[in-house]
């Protein structure tokens, strides 16, 4: 098998991530429209294009519906729905754009063709990011002359509320393009995971897909209802996951011994028939990697520190969602008065 073609150096971006003023959103469905709303709320000028005949009306309705939530979160200076321009063509949308966010449907050939068109039309050096939820960029950038500037910028729905964006390049993507995109998303108010390798489905989708599959198994086998499944998360581990992820959460299950004690105690249950997913072999390398990863994530905080942080966070979530006795839900970003 021939070795992958090394990345081509990316042309210099037209400006620094901090200096971007105009963003193009290509594809104006739920994800693309959510991106447009987010960028508008952050004070950018947004040009958008979608081939659907009713694209402009749908996009403006989506942005208008999102705006009250964005106002509660806090708008950037100068943010306005009036800064949205919907164009009649792709080329017009990306002309003068300093960043391009592609959010077309999840069809590989469509993505390939569209990214090639964007590469031909966008200003030299402008980074082009795909909102794909599963395709590796290596598979999408095939045949695109400017593949070095193509990255994945995978958001979560709705992009105007959920902070996470996973950024990763393909085999032909220049590292500088990945670095530029990651910094731009941070400036634009996102929480960024910059992946150092391609993984189909990326990180968060693989985790939620595992949960989704098991939920479907339980429904199909009559083992749990949809209501029970949803409640099992919103009233259970979802409260903890809002504060810290599954790895540190499980580390706390080990008490003062942390993840090492948890793996010693519960490791054998990985082979129990609790799920339909095949568990990895808990060999020494995996054991040590998980323990070390939790130590790194704890960043010097003791188990007691983490327990206190988790408890405070869960109480905040309960209070914010009106689940504490006598509590009422408050708008996001507003302090109770």
UniProtKB/TrEMBL annotation:
Catalytic function, reaction form: carnitine + NAD(+) = 3-dehydrocarnitine + NADH + H(+)
Main localization, broad class: cytoplasm
Pfam families linked: 3HCDH, 3HCDH_N
Residues that bind NAD(+): 27-32
Enzyme Commission (EC) number: 1.1.1.108
Keyword terms, alphabetized: Cytoplasm, NAD, Oxidoreductase
Pathway: Lipid metabolism; butanoate metabolism; Amine and polyamine metabolism; carnitine metabolism
Record-level Gene Ontology MF annotations: carnitine 3-dehydrogenase activity; NAD+ binding
Cellular compartments per GO CC: cytoplasm
Oxidoreductase is among the record's keywords: yes
Subcellular location: Cytoplasm
Domain of life: Bacteria
GO terms for biological process, alphabetical: carnitine metabolic process; fatty acid metabolic process
Domain 3-hydroxyacyl-CoA dehydrogenase C-terminal intervals: 201-270
InterPro entries: 3-OHacyl-CoA_DH_NAD-bd, 3HC_DH_C, 6-PGluconate_DH-like_C_sf, 6PGD_dom2, L-carnitine_dehydrogenase, NAD(P)-bd_dom_sf
Domain 3-hydroxyacyl-CoA dehydrogenase NAD binding: 23-197
Enzyme class: oxidoreductase
Subunit composition and interactions: Homodimer.
PANTHER family: 3-HYDROXYACYL-COA DEHYDROGENASE FAMILY PROTEIN, 3-HYDROXYBUTYRYL-COA DEHYDROGENASE
Function: Catalyzes the NAD(+)-dependent oxidation of L-carnitine to 3-dehydrocarnitine.
Family assignment from sequence similarity: Belongs to the 3-hydroxyacyl-CoA dehydrogenase family. L-carnitine dehydrogenase subfamily.
Stated name of the protein: L-carnitine dehydrogenase
